[in-house]
C-alpha cells in the first residue's frame, strides 16, 4: 500500500515596513561616524590636527592615497 504525502506548503509572513523614527538614530550615527572617519583619513595633519604627532597619519596613509587625498 503506497501512501501519498503532500509537500508542505510554505507560509510567508507579511513584511512590515520599518518606521522612519526607528531608522533615523541609526542613520545619524552612521553619518557622524562616516564624517569622523573621513576627517581622520583626509584632514588629520598639519594645522587642523586634533591628535599631535604622526601616528594617525601613518595609520591612515594608504587610505589617503586610495581615496585621492594628497599627504606628501
Describe the structure.
It contains 3 helices and no strands. The protein is mostly helical. The mean pLDDT is 82.
Keywords:
mainly alpha; 72 residues
Question: How many DSSP H or I helices?
Answer: 3
Shape: elongated
Oligomer: single chain
Unreliable stretches covering 5 or more consecutive residues: none
> Kindly state the mean pLDDT as a whole number?
82
N-to-C SSE series? HHH
Give the biggest sheet. Answer: none
Into which percent range does the helicity of residues fall?
A: 40-55%
- Radius of gyration, in Å, reads 26 Å
The CA-CA distance between the termini, in Å, is 84 Å
Number of strands: 0
Derived from helix and strand composition plus strand pairing, the structural class reads mainly alpha
Beta content comes to under 5%
Helices and strands, with pairings:
Blueprint: H1 20-42, H2 55-59, H3 61-67
Short description, anyone?
This protein has 72 residues and is an all-alpha fold.
Amino acid at each position: 500500500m503506497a501512501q501519498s504525502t503532500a509537500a508542505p506548503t510554505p507560509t510567508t509572513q507579511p513584511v512590515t515596513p520599518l518606521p522612519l523614527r526607528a531608522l533615523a538614530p541609526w542613520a545619524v550615527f552612521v553619518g557622524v561616524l562616516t564624517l569622523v572617519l573621513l576627517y581622520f583619513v583626509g584632514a588629520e595633519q598639519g594645522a587642523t590636527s586634533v591628535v599631535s604627532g604622526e601616528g594617525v597619519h601613518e595609520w591612515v596613509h594608504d587610505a589617503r592615497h586610495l581615496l585621492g587625498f594628497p599627504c606628501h
